[in-house]
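Course assignment 3, question 2. Fill in each field.
Student: A.L.
Task: Predict the tertiary structure for the chain below.
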Amino acid sequence: MPLTSLMDVFTILVFFLLFNSSSGEVLEAPREIKLPDSAVEIKPRETVVIMVAPDMVLVQGELVASTTDILTSKNDIIAPITAKLAQIERNIIGINTKTVVEAKEVTLLADKSIPFSVLKKIMSTCTGSGYGKI
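Answer field:
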């Protein structure tokens, strides 16, 4: 019984699983955002990520609003962010995305120069969209 080809398949399968099993994603902030120094001992859970740079707001890496527009806005709810969060909930692809959406958690990465009023409006928008853990 020729086992050589079967062993080759198993070897390839083992290497594939070894390389893809370490899905420890490191959340890298873009160069535009200067975060304060911090250290963490536990790996963060996968969540919806909102990045606030000095000139733009990104949800899951896509530009949704300008920071100056949010600062000058009278509303506490930001419509483009609400629309993007709703779109993320509608477009569930795979188990990872479903877990992220069902957790209703948002990770907010903001540049240290961003005024708190902008962050407060973004957090109010997230809470209004059902994302209670920020």
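Instructor remarks: Helices lie at 4-21, 67-72, 79-90, 94-103, 116-128. The radius of gyration is 20 Å.
Grade: pending
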